[in-house]
Amino acid sequence: MPKQVDYEDRRSRIAEAVCLLIARSGMESVSLRDVAAEAGVSMGAVQRCFRTKDEMLLFALEGISERIGDRAKARIEASGTPESAVTLLDQALSALALVEPEDRTEAQVWGAFVAHAAVSEELAGVLRDTYAKLHELLVWLLDYGRTTGELRPDVDASTEARVLLALTDGLTAQTVVGHHTPESARGVLRGYAKGLEVY
After folding, report:
1. 154 has which bridge partners?
2. Which end of the chain has the least Cβ crowding within 10 Å, N or C?
3. How far apart, in whole angstroms, are the C-alpha atoms of residue 44 and residue 33?
4. Which residues pair with 151 in a beta bridge?
5. Is the pTM of this model over 0.70?
6. Contact of 108 with 98, CB cutoff 8 Å
């Protein structure tokens, strides 16, 4: 009887190999041969899972986008309820900024995909959808903070969510290149969020 292949597991392994290659050597290092070697499968196996390189990249980006959003939600849920809105916002922002040492690989891959999306409408579409979902999460947190009285009543949740999302993205890049340390990046986020609090 032929061996059963778990294609979803194989696709996930291949996507992980794509991310590891990007983190190590950049987007240009993603070749069929190198991805197959990194994933420990044959080139034919890669081709059976993904018809094109672009399809493979798209799947990898969708996976990393989902992980970033899930991690932010998990940090919020893990803190239990009731919880300070300021604490929840701090936890979400630290998850989105990808500045911790253990987030470095993901930060490098995210930056490569953002840069490559400038010439790929499909990748840009995934990123737009991801940013929209993260924006909604931050709007909810900011509205929650106004409801609890921790954040100023005049805070425009939608506008501030856009600013915070741009800030986390910028700090991701600046931490990867060494302009910020994880500590100084967290300090920038906390400093900005502090300005939204009721005094």
Report:
1. none
2. N
3. 10
4. 197
5. yes
6. no
